[in-house]
Specification:
Elements (H helix, E strand, L loop, with lengths): L6 H4 L2 H4 L12 H13 L9 E3 L1 H11 L3 H13 L2 E2 L5 E3 L1 H8 L11 H15 L3 H13 L4 H16 L5 H16 L5 H13 L5 H15 L15 H5 L43 H11 L2
Helix pairs in contact: 3-4, 3-5, 4-5, 7-8, 8-11, 9-10, 9-11, 10-11
Length: 299
């Protein structure tokens, strides 16, 4: 049998375990360019005809085919057969003609190459710099070149936490909603869902406190000794654990007036470590004051 989907999801596990799986990967852009070049030179193709065409147009056709050799060959054939015929019998294929044959404007874009990462970086950094005009432009460049809208939506979700965080927690909600809208609508209908979210994220207040908090905590987790969890905040589901003082001294925060217990939840060596440092004055209202009170009681 054959499937274009991942066999792990599309084939019964019991059957899959008794099969040998051969993965046929899509052709790369360079492979398709080589194929198109051979067709232009080989007499079985257009080798008997002089075809004038910029070398870059072969790259455009290869990228447009997205790994499908038959699509690349069909595109080349359509372009050559509709090219301008000169008195000497040669055929000229222009970019304008190729765009007409492909049915859409050809944009320089490779979903797996450098331009892919250049454009998503441009989108991210434009939003970070609160420039909605540039952000929408880079968004349009990606979508109209055929980028998967769900990929862009996932990057917007990351941006909402990395660059906005608790300065506006609605940003994450909107980014997740945009992902769902892309999933439900698909292209081209979801282009406005993404544009709305990109503009909102570009203009939202900024804070990278959540990002810096995690990165600092990650560094400590990777470089310092793996200290045990303080006994006071361990769970004690068995009698033996209770005898070993698991959970001894634990205070249920909801039983206190401030809903904050006087406890130290970090390991001893990190008792006074501070990871979350708000960058916006009073992020999300009174959270900053509550944060300071919690740290005071944990000393």
């Amino acid at each position: 049998g054959a499937t274009t989907e991942n066999p792990s999801f599309e084939i019964n596990a019991a059957l899959l375990s008794r099969c040998r799986v051969f993965v046929l990967k899509e052709l790369g852009t360079e492979d398709l360019q080589e194929l198109l070049t051979r067709v232009l030179k080989d007499r079985r193709g257009f080798g008997g005809t002089t075809v004038h065409m910029e070398a870059e147009l072969l790259s455009v056709m290869a990228a447009f085919a997205n790994g499908d050799a038959r699509m690349a060959l069909n595109t080349l054939e359509t372009a050559v057969l509709n090219g301008e015929i000169s008195p000497d019998g040669s055929i000229t294929v222009t970019r304008q003609l190729l765009e007409q044959c492909m049915g859409k404007k050809t944009l320089l874009y490779d979903r797996k190459g450098e331009e892919h990462y250049n454009l998503i970086s441009a989108l991210h950094k434009s939003m970070r710099n609160s420039d909605p005009d540039a952000a929408v432009y880079w968004l349009a460049r990606m979508l109209e070149a055929g980028e998967d809208p769900l990929f862009i939506a996932r990057r917007l979700i990351r941006f909402a936490s990395e660059d906005i965080g608790l300065a506006d927690s609605r940003a994450l909600q909107l980014a997740v909603a945009a992902y769902q809208a892309c999933h439900f609508n698909g292209m081209p209908e979801c282009n406005l869902n993404l544009a709305q979210t990109v503009i909102y994220l570009s203009l939202a207040p900024r804070s990278n406190a959540v990002y810096r908090a995690y990165e600092t905590a990650k560094e400590d987790a990777l470089t310092q000794l793996s200290e045990p969890v303080p006994l006071v905040i361990r769970n004690a589901p068995t009698q033996l654990m209770e005898e070993l003082h698991y959970g001894e001294g634990y205070i249920y925060a909801h039983d206190t007036e401030e809903k904050i217990a006087r406890m130290t939840c970090l390991p001893a060596s990190l008792k006074d470590r501070r990871y979350y440092l708000p960058t916006q004055e009073g992020e999300e209202g009174g959270w900053k004051e509550r944060l300071e009170r919690s740290r005071e009681l944990s000393r």
